[in-house]
Predict the structure.
Amino acid sequence: MVYQTRDTIASDPAPPSSLNALVTEAQQGSQSAFEALYARYNDAICRYLSRMAGNDGAGCELTQEAFLKAWSALPELRSPEHFVGWLYRIASNCAHDYQRRMKHIHTVSLDTCATDTHGLSIEGPEEGVGEAELLKLALARVSSTYRGCLILYVIEELPQRQIAERLHIKEASVSKYVSRGKEELRQIYQQLLKEQSSKITQQKRRGR
């Protein structure tokens, strides 16, 4: 999947009037208008949900679920100018529901993770891939309140005002959540590194 660049996402090229018109048309039942909204925000929502879930496949499925829910609930949206934040809140709720259904995301063992990727070894040329996979796993374990802020602020590089609108939180809370999220992520990542190192040591001992 080809994603939009950060600059494109952080600064929507379409004027508010154009977005409002599309939302209004979609609310009146225009599928072509909603398809235009889907085309505009699909990649960003998919990337957001993939990182929220810690799984690219799940992120794509959740994106479809989020847009289906948005289409069904669109007539209830009172202010078209709030569409983007409203859509992100639906996406966030989908991610939270997914993680409640799949609690093993928070307790998945490195054995299971190793089955899905060949890049977990900290030795050899796969080291960079392994670290990236561990970081993705660690991010998926960060508290959901902080995780969304981390993704939008650190990875998507959105300004605090837009993050607050998308997550329906106070703008003053964004920096606090990001700071706490970074610390939580660091602790989880370090713990995963220790677990991984211990696992590799045990494998080497068994291989002797």
Q: What stands out?
A: The first helix runs from residue 6 to 10.
